[in-house]
Structures are given as C-alpha cells and as structure tokens.
Amino acid sequence: MRYKTFLLFLILALVLVACGGGNNAATNTEPVAPAEEEAAPAQEEAPAEAEEMANQVEVFSWWTGGGEAAGLEAMIKVFNEK
User: Fold this and answer.
1) Is 82 a residue whose pLDDT tops 60?
2) What are the distances in angstroms from CA 67 to CA 6, 61, 70?
3) What's the CA gap between 31 and 21, in Å, rounded?
C-alpha cells in the first residue's frame, strides 16, 4: 500500500511539472544592439554556393554493420549510376 501511495504521488508530481507553465518572458531587460550591416556580402555569395550544392546530396547514416551496410552501399551504387 505504501508503494502504491508513493507511486501515485510521484505520477501526480510528474503531471504537475509537465503541465506547469514556465516563465517565457526574457529575463534580460537590456535593449539588444542592432545588427551591423556586414551580412550583405554573405548574401551575395549565397547563390554561388547554392548552385554548387544543388548538385550534391549528403546522406547521414548510422547503419554501418551487417546487411544494413550492404543495403546502404547498394543504394549509393544505384544513385551514382543515375
């Protein structure tokens, strides 16, 4: 009985924590300095980088053992053939 009561209070506490609202207001009241205008050159370079990356595909996989690795290699082979 003691275990069930403890478990009930634990579940109740977890529900209250999950439903509790946090303070979403910013605690720093100092005004934020405006961003400098250095971003303009980076925007001019972005289309060239986008054109380069348009022909690239990056695949991240953690399947590196057994039949999973063989399947991944087969998929890469089919992709490279096209």
Assistant:
1) yes
2) 47, 13, 5
3) 25
**What span, in angstroms and rounded, lies between the C-alpha atoms of 67 and 73?**
10
Question: How do residues 8-56 score in pLDDT, each as one tens digit?
Answer: 999 999 998 888 777 666 566 666 666 655 555 555 556 667 777 777 7
Higher pLDDT, 59 or 79: 79
| Amino acid letter, residue 73 | E
Cα dihedral 75, 78, 80, 82 in deg (nearest 10): -140
Q: What's the Cα-to-Cα distance from 31 to each of 25, 61, 66, 81, rounded to whole Å?
A: 14, 43, 56, 56
SS3 82: coil
